[in-house]
């Protein structure tokens, strides 16, 4: 029942969700699943717009509570590094293991230093980090895992101050995330 | 002819028969064999605590030493059963205590265990040796303290995945100085602190300690000291594993770990800094069991590097963060692999960390001894399942869970009937099967036709009609447990052959099409079954309309009729 561009598609009457290849059966099941999702006790929409069905996926509650680090906010691995920011009176500490990537980290840094970022003049900030060799590197160049492996501390510098600091070529990705 | 042998001879012969099934068969041969068997029986397994009463158990097996009990139905794990449904162990312990039975071992799964029960247990059986609690609840550290204090010859205290209220951490200190018999201590699931000094002393005076699983709050320096005192360990569960690899503490730990040349099983890493895993490498070559499913902090290169050291692995439990590539590393490294479980690290997420059919195919190709699988994945294809079936005909347990339960084959858009059909046709020894993905009645036709050894089947969001359920009930002669949710199975499937349910342990159906009338009919026709309707809605009265669909039905065979401890939300027909 392949529907390969024979030109019939436009006139063909089809039941079901657009884009779906199957017949009514598949869509029935999908409809049932979606209906249950909407009626389900644990009605909670996550970022993807997918509702949760009670008891699905079948992961036992003990495991759910104990092996899902990030979403629950429970820390199952720790990798704290100091974070300093020009103009902010105190350093902070951040758990790198909690974050999945650079943009995630950028969001977290914004949360930590939101006020200082906002109060400063309209200048860009550049995130740099000290690596295992003691060099100060621009964050964002290397894959995330390599980064958390070698990062010993973080610093958020004003773009204007960077020139005199001996930092290497700017990369695009992370810089954009911290732009005020 | 056998009657001419004195009883002692038969007893001696029966002693060498370990399997429950075989002993059950032996007892059915004739009256004298029944008699001899029952007096010599030491170990009893009861898969449903409501199928028999403690009194009848004691009457039949007065020499009982070891009892295994299971309580709540499997779907209770997924919050489908009310918390007060039942499964209380207290009546069992009370009856056993009053009977004078010399209980030595108690293993419980999905039961409600009160502190009172544990206290009674600890004081009633002088020779008590082994307590194993799996997925239980209802007790606190006080109950554990009683067990520690009173069971003078305790060998095993094994707590797996229990919900324990343990705000008071003194229980470990309750092991008396005279207690030197511990072989196995597992408190990984406890959230509270333990007295570290008491723990060190306990381990020091337990020369037979083979298995030690710590919780998250045991710090690194304690771990190091414990390993120095117990280099004979065979099974280790690490709680917290965070250290700076360049530090002195880390070096000391490395040295301690290296002395433990007998460790073949490793688990935990409840808290982990991935950089530190290299300290573990020296013992990886001996590992046959590795459970990293509670260590979401381990992933990527650090994880695969670790696995590359584990050439002898037979059992691997992992999170799906390992990815398909990581599974490729497993496939090329772990040639002895028999059991693989891949759990979801982010069940409701976008699926950034997940595995697909590719990972499974790689493992099936690289690990020909694979016979047990639990696999949570983003997607699956028929082609992949057919390949897996061809590569691994030895599956005994095959449980596949696609995170979107009605997802078709993403390549062909077809249901996964053919894929699962290939699995049941190829794996002639298959005993347990869990299905997911888009499935029609066809897959059940295959299951009924080919899955001759199937004992347990789990179905969700599948099938088109009653035919699906009928294929299974008619075809699978050895079926013991059937659990179904959200399928269009109604009364005509349920009522086709009610006698079948007496040959099974239990049937669970939730969010299906069966009605109150249908369930009542089963109950009327089969007095040997308890048919329970579970209704958790706010209505205080059950809607008595026979045509009303039943939300949850759980039926099971029993020799002792209706139970007396059901809560309001459970109606026994």
From TrEMBL, chain A:
One Gene Ontology term from the biological process aspect of the record: auxin-activated signaling pathway
Domain PB1: 78-161
Matching InterPro entries: AUX/IAA_dom, AUX_IAA, PB1-like
Keywords: Auxin signaling pathway, Nucleus, Repressor, Transcription, Transcription regulation
Superkingdom of source: Eukaryota
Keyword Ubl conjugation: no
GO cellular component, one term: nucleus
Main subcellular location: nucleus
PANTHER family, A to Z: AUXIN-RESPONSIVE PROTEIN IAA17, AUXIN-RESPONSIVE PROTEIN IAA5
Quaternary assembly: Homodimers and heterodimers.
Family: Belongs to the Aux/IAA family.
Role, per record: Aux/IAA proteins are short-lived transcriptional factors that function as repressors of early auxin response genes at low auxin concentrations.
Protein name per the record: Auxin-responsive protein
Organism field: Hibiscus trionum (Flower of an hour)
TrEMBL record, chain B:
Gene Ontology CC terms, in alphabetical order: nucleus; SCF ubiquitin ligase complex
MF terms in GO: auxin binding
InterPro entries in UniProt: COI1_F-box, F-box_dom, Leu-rich_rpt, Leu-rich_rpt_Cys-con_subtyp, LRR_dom_sf, Transp_inhibit
Keyword presence, Cell cycle: no
Metabolic or biological pathway: Protein modification; protein ubiquitination
Keyword hit for Cell membrane: no
Keywords, sorted A to Z: Auxin signaling pathway, Developmental protein, Nucleus, Ubl conjugation pathway
GO biological process, one term: auxin-activated signaling pathway
Main location: nucleus
Domain F-box: 5-46
Family annotation (CDD domains): F-box_AtTIR1-like
UniProt-annotated location(s): Nucleus
SUPFAM superfamilies for this protein: RNI-like (SSF52047)
Protein name as annotated: Auxin signaling F-box 2
């Amino acid at each position: 029942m392949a529907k390969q561009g024979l030109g019939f598609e436009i006139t063909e009457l089809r039941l079901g969700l657009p884009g779906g290849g199957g017949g009514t059966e598949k869509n029935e099941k999908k409809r049932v699943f979606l209906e249950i999702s909407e009626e389900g006790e644990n009605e909670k929409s996550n970022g993807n717009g997918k509702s949760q069905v009670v008891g699905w996926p079948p992961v036992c509650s003990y495991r759910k509570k104990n092996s899902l680090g990030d979403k629950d906010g429970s820390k199952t691995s720790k990798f704290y590094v100091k974070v300093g920011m020009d103009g902010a009176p105190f350093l902070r500490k951040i758990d790198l293991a909690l974050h999945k990537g650079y943009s995630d980290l950028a969001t977290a840094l914004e949360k930590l230093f939101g006020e200082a970022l906002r109060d400063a003049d309209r200048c860009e900030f550049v995130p740099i980090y000290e690596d295992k060799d003691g060099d100060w590197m621009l964050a964002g160049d290397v894959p995330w895992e390599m980064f958390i492996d070698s990062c010993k501390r973080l610093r958020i510098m004003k773009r204007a101050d960077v020139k005199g600091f001996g930092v290497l070529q700017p990369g695009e990705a992370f810089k954009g995330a911290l732009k005020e | 002819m056998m009657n001419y042998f004195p009883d002692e001879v038969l007893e001696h012969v029966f002693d060498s028969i370990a399997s429950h099934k075989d002993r059950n068969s032996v007892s059915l041969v004739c009256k004298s064999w029944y008699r001899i068997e029952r007096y010599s029986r030491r170990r009893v397994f009861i898969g449903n605590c409501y199928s028999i009463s403690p009194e009848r158990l004691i009457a039949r097996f007065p020499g009982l030493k070891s009892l295994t009990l299971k309580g709540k139905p499997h779907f209770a794990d997924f919050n489908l059963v009310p918390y007060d449904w039942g499964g209380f162990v207290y009546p069992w312990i009370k009856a056993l205590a009053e009977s004078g039975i010399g209980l030595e071992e108690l293993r419980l799964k999905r039961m409600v265990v009160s502190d009172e029960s544990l206290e009674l247990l600890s004081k009633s059986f002088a020779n008590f040796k082994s307590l194993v609690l799996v997925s239980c609840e209802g007790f606190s550290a006080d109950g554990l303290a009683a067990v520690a204090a009173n069971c003078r010859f305790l060998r095993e205290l094994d707590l797996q995945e229990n919900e324990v209220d343990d705000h008071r951490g003194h229980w470990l200190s309750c092991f008396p100085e005279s207690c030197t018999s511990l072989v196995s201590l597992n408190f990984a699931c406890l959230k509270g602190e333990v007295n570290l000094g008491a723990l060190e002393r306990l381990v020091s005076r337990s020369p037979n300690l083979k298995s030690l699983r710590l919780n998250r709050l045991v710090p690194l320096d304690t771990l190091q000291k414990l390993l120095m005192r117990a280099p004979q360990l065979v099974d280790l569960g690490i709680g917290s594993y965070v250290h700076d690899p360049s530090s002195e503490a880390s070096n000391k730990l490395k040295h301690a770990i290296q002395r433990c040349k007998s460790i073949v099983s490793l688990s935990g890493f409840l808290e982990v800094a991935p950089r530190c895993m290299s300290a573990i490498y020296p013992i990886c070559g001996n590992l046959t069991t590795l459970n990293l499913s509670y260590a979401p902090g381990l992933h990527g290169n650090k994880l695969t590097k670790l696995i590359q050291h584990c050439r002898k692995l037979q059992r691997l439990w992992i999170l799906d963060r390992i990815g398909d590539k990581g599974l490729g590393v497993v496939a090329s490294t772990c040639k002895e692999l028999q059991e693989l479980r891949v759990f979801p690290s982010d069940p409701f997420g976008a699926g950034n960390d997940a595995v697909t059919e590719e990972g499974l195919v790689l493992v099936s190709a690289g690990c020909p001894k694979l016979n047990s699988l639990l696999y949570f994945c983003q997607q699956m294809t028929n082609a992949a399942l057919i390949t897996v079936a061809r590569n691994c005909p030895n599956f005994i347990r095959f449980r596949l869970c696609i995170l979107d339960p009605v997802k078709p084959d993403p390549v062909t858009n077809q249901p996964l009937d053919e894929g699962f059909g290939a699995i049941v046709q190829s794996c002639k020894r298959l005993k347990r099967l869990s299905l997911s993905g888009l499935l029609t009645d066809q897959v059940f036709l295959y299951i009924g036709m080919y899955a001759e050894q199937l004992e347990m089947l789990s179905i969700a969001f599948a099938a088109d009609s009653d035919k699906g359920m009928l294929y299974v009930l008619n075809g699978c002669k050895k079926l013991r447990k059937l659990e179904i949710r959200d399928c269009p199975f109604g009364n005509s499937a349920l009522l086709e052959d009610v006698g079948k349910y007496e040959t099974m342990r239990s049937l669970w159906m939730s969010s299906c099409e069966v009605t109150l009338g249908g369930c009542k009919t089963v109950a009327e026709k089969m007095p040997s079954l308890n048919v329970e309707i579970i209704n958790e809605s706010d209505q205080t009265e059950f809607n008595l309309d026979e045509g009303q669909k039943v939300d949850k039905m759980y039926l099971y065979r029993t020799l002792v009729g209706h139970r007396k401890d059901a809560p309001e939300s459970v109606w026994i027909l």
